[in-house]
Structures are given as C-alpha cells and as structure tokens.
Amino acid sequence: MEKLKNENTADDDSIFNADGDTWKSQRQLSSHEFNTKSLRRFLETVVDTELSARLIPTLSPAAANTAAATLDLQDILQRFTFDNICKIAFGYDLGYLAPTLPEARFATAFENAVRIICGRFNSGVP
After folding, report:
1. Per-domain residue ranges for the chain?
2. 49-79 as b/e, with b when 16 or more CB fall inside 10 Å?
3. In 3-state terms, what secondary structure has residue 55?
4. Contact criterion met (CB below 8 Å) for 57 and 99
5. What are the residues whose beta carbons fall under 8 Å from the beta carbon of 117, sequence distance 6 or more?
6. How far apart are CA 14 and CA 7, in angstroms?
7. Calpha distance 103→80 (Å, rounded)
C-alpha cells in the first residue's frame, strides 16, 4: 500500500483516470465493444456459470438448514460480483466464491485502491 501512496498517477491517461476529451474518446471507442451481441452472450454465460456452480451451492445449505445457518450475505455477494468482474474483464477466475470462501486478498487490495482513488477525487487536489 505504501508503494501505491507514492505512485504519481497524475499523468495516467487510462480510462479509469482520464478526464475531458481523453475520457470521451476512450469511452466512445470502448462503448462499441460493450454493445455487441457476442459480449452479451459472454456475460450471460459467465454470470450463469458463477450463479449455478458457486452462488446457489453456497446459499443452498443455509436455506435448507433454517435452524442455525448464518451467512454474511454482503460478503458472499461481493465475492460473486468480484469473481464475475475478474472473469469478464481479465479472463481470470479468482475463485473467491469457492465453497471454502478463501481469503480475498486481491479484492481487499482493490477496495483499498478504490478508497484511495475516491479520496483523491473528493479532495479536489490533482
């Protein structure tokens, strides 16, 4: 995290950090890809697979055992979302929604990075 604090990202023109005309140009280029039928089919396949192979099997035992089953639904849905985003955006399955609910180190680091970026944006200082 210290390295992240020391990085100078002011010259970063990635779509996540761009402003003005640079952002508009990058958004126009990428928007065509997000509207294709093949992407929609891919999204449906990835989400359906994650839903049927991991989310439902994770929730089913708790639903069947009404006596003492307690789940952190926010954690489970965050894992579901993060796994889907990583598969769709990067083609990599982190498996955070595996039955053992492994430690989500990358997801935690990502949340910290988002918090830092939002703090930078909200501070009004470039």
Report:
1. 13-123
2. ebeeebbeebbeeeeeeeeeeeeeeeebebb
3. helix
4. yes
5. 16, 17
6. 15
7. 14
**What's the predicted TM-score (pTM) here?**
0.62
Q: How confident is the model over 27-52, as pLDDT tens digits? A: 777 776 667 787 888 889 999 999 99
Tokens found for residue 96? 């955070």
User: What is the three-class DSSP state of 65?
Assistant: coil
Helix (H, G, I), strand (E, B) or coil at 22: helix
Q: Which residue blocks in the chain are alpha helix, DSSP H?
A: 2-6, 20-33, 37-50, 56-64, 73-90, 105-123
Helix axis angle for 105-123 and 73-90, nearest 10°, is 90
